[in-house]
Write a structure and sequence with these properties.
CATH architecture: 3-Layer(aba) Sandwich
Family: Belongs to the short-chain dehydrogenases/reductases (SDR) family.
Number of strands: 7
Protein name: Short-chain dehydrogenase
CATH topology: Rossmann fold
InterPro entries: NAD(P)-bd_dom_sf, SDR_fam
Keywords: Oxidoreductase
CATH superfamily: NAD(P)-binding Rossmann-like Domain
GO molecular function, one term: oxidoreductase activity
Distance between the termini: 30 Å
Order of helices and strands: EHEHEHEHEHHEHHE
Length: about 250
């Protein structure tokens, strides 16, 4: 059994980043054409595009601020003109900021997290889902986080945004399911990536993980590829943790 995404087009927001670049490569390895979104790092996005093309698929980079409706609309037009209408969306981009306590966290950080998690997903849905409805096939995948379940000190703005995102995507799954579009969330733990290698500093974290280790960015990309495929055509409305059991969604 293999994951075959030939004939599909995936748009990955934050596609030039630490997790995004591996998602793009993995989806391309499965045969999907890819549109690599970036906000500021054009050179990294071009490197991801070049790697995807070497795998024999079509690829392009596209710039946008995913918190702005006009930018998302422009992104749709540019992707449509070059590659067509995406039927796989992976919403991975998020604004980075310095974490501190609720009492000290600037209000602007709560606003930025709301815009880059909740509004990001709302804008992507409003802009790209109508074409999926016409096709009667689509995959809408949001990248959440284990932090949404941990609610640890200093995480308040991030957790608030991701929990808001969770609510939007659960509602969206109910609203568009009849059109054979699935909506799911992948929730990484503290993963090893090119930008975040493993180290002794992570030992206390790993001690609390049932598998006693950190996962990799490839573990995230593998689940994204599965959820994007027909193998997962009856899975929707799910928040799936990829954390080695560090967090366990309850029933």
């Amino acid at each position: 059994m293999q994951i075959d995404l030939q004939g599909h087009l995936a748009l990955i927001t934050g596609g030039s980043g630490q997790l995004g670049r591996v998602m793009c490569r993995t989806l391309a390895e499965c045969g999907a054409n890819v549109a690599v979104h970036y906000h500021r790092d054009e050179s990294s996005a071009q490197a991801v595009v070049d790697a995807a093309r070497q795998l024999g698929v079509q690829a392009m980079k596209v710039q946008a601020d995913v918190t702005q409706a006009a930018d998302v609309e422009r992104m749709r037009s540019e992707v449509q003109d070059e590659l067509g209408a995406p039927d796989i969306l992976v919403n991975n981009a998020v604004i980075q900021y310095a974490w501190t306590t609720v009492l000290e966290q600037p209000l602007a950080d709560y606003e930025s997290q709301f815009r880059s998690t909740v509004l990001h997903n709302v804008l992507m849905a409003q802009t790209f889902v109508p074409a999926m409805i016409e096709r009667r096939w689509g995959r809408f995948i949001g990248i959440n986080t284990e932090c949404a379940m941990q609610a640890a000190p200093s995480q308040s703005a991030y957790v608030a945004g991701k929990r808001g995102m969770d609510g939007v995507l659960r509602v969206l799954a109910r609203e568009i399911g009849e059109h054979q579009i699935t909506v799911n969330q992948v929730a990484p733990g503290w993963m090893i990536s090119q930008d975040h290698p493993d180290s002794e500093a992570a030992d206390p974290y790993k001690a609390g993980v049932p598998l006693r280790r950190r996962g990799t960015d490839q573990d995230i990309a593998n689940l994204v590829a599965y959820l994007a495929s027909d193998l997962a055509n009856f899975i929707s409305g799910q928040y799936i943790s990829v954390s080695g059991g560090n967090v366990m969604p309850t029933i």
